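job 3f2a | input accepted
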Amino acid sequence: MFKIGVVTDEISQNLIEAIEVAKSWGLKYIELHSVWGKNICHVDDATLSQVISIVKKSGMIVTNIDSLTLRCRLDDDGEYAEHIQHLMRSIEIAPLFNSNVVRLFSFWKEENIDDNKWDRIFAKMELPIKIAEREGVILGLENVSSGNIGTSADLGRLFEHFDSPNLKLIWDPGNAYAAGDIDPSPSGYQHVKDHIIHVHVKDVDFIDDKRVWLPVGAGQIDYEAHMRALQHDNYDGVIALETHFRFPGDNGIKSTKKSYEGLMQILNSIKQN
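job 3f2a | predicted structure (273 res):
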């Protein structure tokens, strides 16, 4: 029904272990975010060469490079310059894995965002987007609660401002809910679906006003309705587990498997109905 993938460090920081586990679950698609404790764009050349070899031997397909571009302070121009270099590094790395999608964020969340702050946010997003257009890569903006663009309404504002074929959406309904989207799945999805290139799956709830990541199917996200909507719209991209959920004392394998099983149960239910 869908192509299912995983962010490797959700399973393990050891890339070899992460890929072996993902393959044992029948997965073919991976995202590269953190390997052996470093973002893929921060590893040295020897480690990068090792990663290329490991992925090549595995036969896994890398969907996107989960770079950290613009996960920085809005008004720190020094950090901004460093993040533009981070973007350039991600653009260099992506084709080494036969990918053309690199991730983008929207700066650390500002308090009391007004029109002036939105103008500053969008002004500093101009350069990454123009670079992506020049280089022929896709920027996958991921909505996150820790950034300025988290909800479907925020995303609507973004795509109303920018009309670029090189700016797409890594849609995360769990992050949208954590950011304040009351019904991201599937209502929020309807507002952003035309921009989606990739989908992240995580589940979440608020307990005593504190955000808590949960196994897929155990939180507030209506993933059955969301998967039905994706199926209805003939979504042909990857749905990737990026759950953030952890059992106490678990480094990732057992916890991510729990979410994988939850997702597959939902998908099997859809097949049977």
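job 3f2a | The mean pLDDT is 97.
job 3f2a | closed
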